[in-house]
C-alpha cells in the first residue's frame, strides 16, 4: 500500500475529481428514504456511508456536495432559512428535501445532521441511527480535522478569492460552526433526538455489524 503522504491530490481526494453538475432543484424522489444516520462528523460517518452502500442504499455524505457542486447552493439555502431567515422565508419543505435527497436512501454526516428534527419529521418511516463517541475524544478529532480546517488563515483567503466552489463550502462551514456551538450542540443534539423518541439504534463507533442487522430487519 502506498503511504498517504506519497499519494497525489487526486488519489487522496478522489471525490473532488469525480464531479457531476446536476441541479437538483425541482427533482422528485426516486428511491425511498430508509436510513437517517444523524451522528456528528468524526463519528465514523464515512464508514456508515460505506456500510449503507454495501447494503445497496445510495447514501448522501458531506463529500456528496463536492461530487456535485450545485448542491452547495441548496444546502446554503436550507441553512440560511433555518438559522438566519429573511422575514418572508420559510424552512425547507418536504418537496425541497426530496429534490435534494430524492436520489438517496440514506444520509449521514454534516450538514445533514444539522437538520435532524426536520428530516425525522419529513421521513417518518426511515430508521434513525445515532453513532456515539466519547465526547473528549470526539472533540479532539473534530477540532483537529474540522475546526482547524475552517479556521485556518489560508482557508479564509481561499474563501474570499473563490466565491464559488470553495467559497460556498466556507459559508456552509461558517453556518455550522456558528450555530452548532460545538460541545453544547453535541449534548443538545442527542437530547433533542431522545425527545423525538425515534432512535432505533444507538451504537459506538466500529459497530457496523449492528447497523447491518438493523437495515435488514
From TrEMBL:
InterPro entries xref list = P-loop_NTPase (IPR027417), Sulfotransfer_4 (IPR040632)
Against Gene3D superfamilies, the record matches this protein to:
P-loop containing nucleotide triphosphate hydrolases
Q: Which PANTHER family match?
A: P-LOOP CONTAINING NUCLEOSIDE TRIPHOSPHATE HYDROLASE PROTEIN, P-LOOP CONTAINING NUCLEOTIDE TRIPHOSPHATE HYDROLASE
Protein name (Swiss-Prot/TrEMBL): P-loop containing nucleoside triphosphate hydrolase protein
Q: What is the lineage of its organism?
A: Eukaryota, Fungi, Dikarya, Ascomycota, Pezizomycotina
Amino acid at each position: 500500500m502506498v503511504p498517504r503522504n506519497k499519494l497525489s491530490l487526486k488519489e487522496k481526494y478522489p471525490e473532488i475529481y469525480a464531479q457531476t453538475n446536476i441541479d437538483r432543484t425541482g427533482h422528485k424522489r426516486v428511491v425511498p428514504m430508509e436510513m437517517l444516520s444523524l451522528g456528528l462528523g468524526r463519528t465514523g460517518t464515512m464508514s456508515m456511508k460505506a456500510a449503507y452502500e454495501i447494503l445497496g442504499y445510495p447514501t448522501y455524505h458531506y463529500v456528496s456536495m463536492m461530487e456535485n457542486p450545485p448542491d452547495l447552493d441548496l444546502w446554503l439555502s436550507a441553512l440560511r432559512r433555518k438559522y438566519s431567515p429573511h422575514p418572508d422565508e420559510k424552512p425547507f419543505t418536504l418537496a425541497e428535501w426530496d429534490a435534494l435527497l430524492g436520489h438517496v436512501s440514506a444520509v449521514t454526516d454534516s450538514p445533514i445532521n444539522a437538520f435532524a428534527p426536520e428530516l425525522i419529521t419529513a421521513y417518518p418511516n426511515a430508521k434513525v441511527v445515532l453513532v456515539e463517541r466519547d465526547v473528549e475524544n470526539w472533540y479532539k478529532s473534530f477540532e483537529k480535522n474540522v475546526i482547524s480546517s475552517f479556521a485556518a488563515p489560508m482557508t479564509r483567503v481561499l474563501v474570499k478569492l473563490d466565491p464559488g466552489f470553495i467559497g460556498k463550502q466556507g459559508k456552509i462551514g461558517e453556518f455550522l460552526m456558528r450555530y452548532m456551538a460545538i460541545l453544547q450542540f453535541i449534548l443538545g443534539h442527542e437530547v433533542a433526538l431522545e425527545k423525538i423518541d425515534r432512535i432505533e439504534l444507538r451504537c459506538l463507533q466500529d459497530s457496523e455489524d449492528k447497523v447491518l442487522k438493523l437495515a435488514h430487519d
